[in-house]
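ok trying this again, last paste got cut off
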Amino acid sequence: MNAVELIKKKRDGKAFSTDEISFLINHYTTGHIPDYQFSALLMAILLKGMTVSETAALTNSMLISGKIINLSSLKGNKVDKHSTGGVGDKTSLIIAPIVASAGIYVPMISGRGLGHTGGTLDKLESIPGFRTDLSLSESKKVLKKCGSVLIGQTKEIAPADKLIYSLRDVTATVESIPLITASIMSKKLAEGIDGLVLDIKTGSGAFMKSQKDSIRLTNSLIQTAKSFNKKVIAFITDMNQPLGNYIGNWLEVYESIRVLNGKIKNDLYALAIKLAGAMIYLGKKAKSLQEGECIAKQKIESGEAFKKFLEIVNLQGGNVNYIINPEKYPRSRFVKKVHSVKNGFIYEMNTYQIGMVSLELGAGRRTKDDVIDHKAGIILYKKIGDDVKNGDIICELRSDSNSKITLAEQMIIESLKFSKTKPSIPKLIKKVIK
């Protein structure tokens, strides 16, 4: 086999054999295929696609490029959740302690912010001292002790994915569904899980803007998971407005704390209950999705979920005093309340732009070397369907830079559209696929 002939083969729309995919991944990760050739291969895959069996073979080759965590010593089911990312999406911080408190192991490998979307690792690291860089042996100890661990991708886990993803990012091949599938599933399968719940976002703040594309990705992920004999349930969920009311790293931790304490029951709470319920069902602690949801609610109401979150934070080095007393967390130097200059109902939110506002305030990275301001972000007081009067507070902006707030204020006003009549509120869960 040689790389040029295989690039030609995919360029011409032909399917690879398992051996050919193995050759390509092995030779790229060992440096025998240069970036310029692999870039051409990625573009050919983007344009010509891959079959279900090709995608499974690609996932497997990326998976076995590193270590697969052996959790056989932990008696019980292991279940995780993957979200394709959105604005204000902090469900991992809520569902991990809920599901762990229900007696299911949750080994969760998460990512950092990407573009306009926030990252679970950045949110967790806003908790002073919290370590997301645990070694595999440290992770297993935490998982064994409290039932959940939330870490980033280590060098040992799917190293081929890390190499390929960085190349996709600079070759305009991020959107390829087979490549997205293999990237997600190689990391999730490396966790040693039995089941997986998928939260596939669709709408203005999602990477998959159309529901049609979201369903295509969902089906690809489900088919790949099933080829590895993993149980999976997928939810297509709305991202035409931010999830919850807080956007930005510490602000999202704060909102998660309030949900876990039973003080908020908004759209964030509703989605977290659905996802946690599905994980509890896959973990065989409930006989139906509905029973799983009831258990998830009970874990919040009893205080067990919040207690479990404290345990996770403590075991991963975080300062639990800020979780118990979040009002003591440092505040941004500048806080600006944005007032409406119109009357009417909010009928549209440009969620992508709202995510970019958060980034502008300092809550995200423009380059990989940027330092995140964990305090920065947005608190939304109004969302789609709300009746707004001239002078009402729409949101609150927080940043250590006054000039950033000035620009952000204009961007947030431009992101909203008003109507004279009350619009229908976007359905939170569009579709459930098993």
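PB: full thing came through this time. The chain has a mean pLDDT of 94.
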